[in-house]
Design the sequence.
């Protein structure tokens, strides 16, 4: 649906928050993936001539106690956090869409079974599950992504199911059904487009939720495992000495806050752009 | 109302039993308390370790189902088992819970109330400078994880202490060991220790609640019943705060149950960073030690609390909205 997409893009670009968020995200991606090329230190290097030194022209963000370059470490963490956030958001929103539409459209025992699964996952203590499984996914971060995603789709799936049930009774779906269109096709062609706005917003906000969750787990040592690093592990290592050696903590913390802020800004802008009943600011648009 | 609450209560009891059992099974199946004995030097003989572990119902060579039954039958009698080094779990649970309560209650209540007020205020002043400032501020706080926020506050407090030359803020532990100065000094010392963690919790809470409350309040501002109240001669402010706020509070009460879980999760960071020996810290330490019964106990406690919060929000919902009591 190009017209709808174009309209959405136009509204989004008229929103100052969303533009700011998108620009910030682009800058962070650039920094994360082009930044490491700018310095001669890699995140695995150790500079034995500089241990726990403040930021300088040699080491832009200073060095750790063992002489590792904080700039390189932080960017490596930034890459990992961005990657994990996006993967988790895509998977969890995708699962929510599939489970929600299938349960809502199929109804009957399929619906009951799937919703029982949702309830079960909601009562499972997610933190505990991920924490005790840490030894299992040692240094295999894709498993961490799957685990995080596994606990983030349930509430959205409920919402999707509810909307699917009401869409199912609408004329255009009934018409398609009487014309003999198969259920999977109806779901993909007629129901999913109507859920697009909900799913887009959910996906965006899940990126920030996933990044905070991952860094929080890593902070306790339950997330990304050494030797690999994420912003959470960098922050955890720097926290104890944060007041005396602020560069060990500050840069990683600032980048983490910036990512989440950028994603939240885009998400909030999207929500307004997609909400037809949205009240515009006096004087219109992005003033 | 009573029937409605009884039905919800039954539903909650089933969920607590399910959640607690799953947590126990998971912890018992994956954690390895045996490692604590094997790391000792000299390493105790295997038979001694086995006997010790069996005595505390922690032996991973006992079938999981039998360990679960032992744990569950103890639980029914109010006995939560023993930690890996033999201390009873139940008294420690209460001790830790009290520490967490002392840490969290003030911040949570203050944060919730302030958040609702700030959000309602922002909605009434939509798109004016004060609304924009509140929005920017809450976005900044929402984007800052608890463990960053807490450390930032500590750095700020350190600066203040340095500049004034007086130890105004304290951030390690619940009180200074060996504090002298009688009742007054001790109470003052405890308050000093409470300021920073409480501020951490309040800031995070206000950010979340004000966002929700602002959206909800905006939804009711244009509603017919508010216009009717104004047509009857009430001022806009009175109409909004007596009629609008009440309706806008209903979803917040439901939301409260969810955030309560988040507060518990956030407590782990707050306790770890500020050195309070509460439940959150206990959970992290127990997972690291492979202390199955302690982990299961904390999760049981958390499940009960979240569901109590749910029940409280159901009650509030019923009180605020008469339609609920009619039993949908």
Sequence:
């Amino acid at each position: 649906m190009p017209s709808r997409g174009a309209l959405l893009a136009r509204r989004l670009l008229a929103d100052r928050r969303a533009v700011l968020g998108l620009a910030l995200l682009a800058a962070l991606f650039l920094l994360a993936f082009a930044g490491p090329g700018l310095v001669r230190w890699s995140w695995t290097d150790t500079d034995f001539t500089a241990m726990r030194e403040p930021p300088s022209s040699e080491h832009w963000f200073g060095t750790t106690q063992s002489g590792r370059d904080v700039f390189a470490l932080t960017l490596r963490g930034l890459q990992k956090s961005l990657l994990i956030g996006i993967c988790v958001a895509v998977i969890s929103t995708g699962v929510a869409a599939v489970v929600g539409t299938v349960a809502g459209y199929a109804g009957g025992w399929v619906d009951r079974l799937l919703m029982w699964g949702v309830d079960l996952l909601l009562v499972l203590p997610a933190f505990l599950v991920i924490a005790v499984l840490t030894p299992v996914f040692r240094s295999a971060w894709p498993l961490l992504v799957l685990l995080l995603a596994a606990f983030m789709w349930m509430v959205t799936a409920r919402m999707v199911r509810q909307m699917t049930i009401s869409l199912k009774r609408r004329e255009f779906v009934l018409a398609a059904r009487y014309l003999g269109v198969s259920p999977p096709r109806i779901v993909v062609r007629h129901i999913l487009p109507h859920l697009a706005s909900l799913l887009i917003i959910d996906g965006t906000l899940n990126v920030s939720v996933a990044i905070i969750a991952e860094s929080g787990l890593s902070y306790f040592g339950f997330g990304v495992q050494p030797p690999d690093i994420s912003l959470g592990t960098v922050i955890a290592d720097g926290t104890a000495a944060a007041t005396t050696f602020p560069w060990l903590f500050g840069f990683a913390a600032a980048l983490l806050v910036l990512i989440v802020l950028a994603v939240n800004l885009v998400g909030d802008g999207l929500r307004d752009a997609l909400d037809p009943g949205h009240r515009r600011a006096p004087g219109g648009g992005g003033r | 109302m009573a029937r409605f609450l009884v039905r919800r209560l039954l539903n909650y009891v089933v969920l607590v039993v399910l959640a607690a059992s799953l947590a126990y099974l998971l912890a018992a199946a994956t954690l390895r308390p045996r490692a604590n004995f094997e790391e000792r030097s000299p390493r105790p003989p295997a038979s001694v370790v086995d006997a010790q572990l069996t005595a505390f119902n922690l032996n991973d060579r006992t079938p999981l189902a039998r360990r679960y039954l032992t744990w569950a039958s103890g639980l029914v009698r109010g006995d939560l088992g023993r930690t890996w080094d033999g201390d009873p779990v139940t008294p420690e649970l209460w001790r830790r819970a009290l520490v967490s309560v002392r840490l969290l209650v003030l911040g949570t209540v203050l944060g919730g109330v302030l958040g609702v007020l700030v959000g309602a205020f922002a909605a009434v002043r939509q798109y004016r400078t004060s609304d924009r400032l509140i929005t920017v501020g809450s976005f900044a706080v929402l984007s800052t994880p608890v463990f960053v926020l807490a450390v930032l506050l500590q750095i700020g407090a350190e600066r203040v202490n340095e500049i004034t030359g007086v130890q105004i803020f304290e951030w390690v532990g619940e009180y200074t060991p060996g504090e002298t100065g009688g009742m007054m000094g001790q109470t003052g010392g405890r308050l000093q220790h409470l300021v920073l963690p409480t501020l951490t919790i309040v800031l995070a809470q206000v950010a979340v609640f004000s966002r929700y409350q602002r959206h909800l309040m905006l939804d009711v501002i244009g509603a017919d019943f508010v216009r009717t109240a104004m047509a009857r001669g009430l001022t806009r402010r009175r109409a909004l705060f007596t009629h609008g706020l009440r309706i806008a509070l209903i979803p917040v009460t439901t939301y409260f149950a969810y955030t309560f879980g988040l507060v518990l999760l956030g407590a782990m960071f707050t306790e770890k960073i500020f050195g309070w020996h509460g439940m959150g810290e206990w959970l992290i330490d127990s997972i690291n030690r492979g202390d199955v019964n302690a982990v299961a106990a904390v999760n049981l406690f958390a499940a009960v609390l979240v569901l109590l919060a749910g029940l409280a929000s159901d009650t509030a919902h019923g009180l605020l909205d008469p339609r609920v009591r009619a039993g949908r």
The first helix of chain B runs from residue 2 to 30. The mean pLDDT of chain B is 82. The domain at 2-325 of chain B is CATH 1.10.3720.10 (MetI-like fold).
